[in-house]
Description:
By secondary structure, this protein is an all-alpha fold. It contains 5 helices and no strands.
Amino acid sequence: MVDRRIIAEKVDSVERSLKRVRSRRQDIVIFHLMQAVQGCIDLAAHVVSDEEMGLAASTHDFFYLLSDNGVVPRDLCERMIKAVGFRNLVAHEYAKLDLEKVYAIATDGIDDIGEFLRVMVRRYV
Length: 125
């Protein structure tokens, strides 16, 4: 059974990161976007594991498993996978970041993270 306390803690953590993203300082924005996405990955992993939805070979797979099991719609799944790609770029290839894309993600892309959180809260909290 999914632990409601863990879900609530992860949602709070992601929301704190999103609040910092909205403050618009470049270094803080990039770091907290990465943290917000990582929080979503952790949240997805928790649900997939506790609900025994299958085994994930990569972080992308957590979102596919959530979609395949009817937790999140496929279009949201695909948007979250793009967010994971961004997180991987920040974590592993920081020098290759395109700051215009970071700005676009910080202004529009965070809506996808918010939507993911709303879906998870409606279902599990």
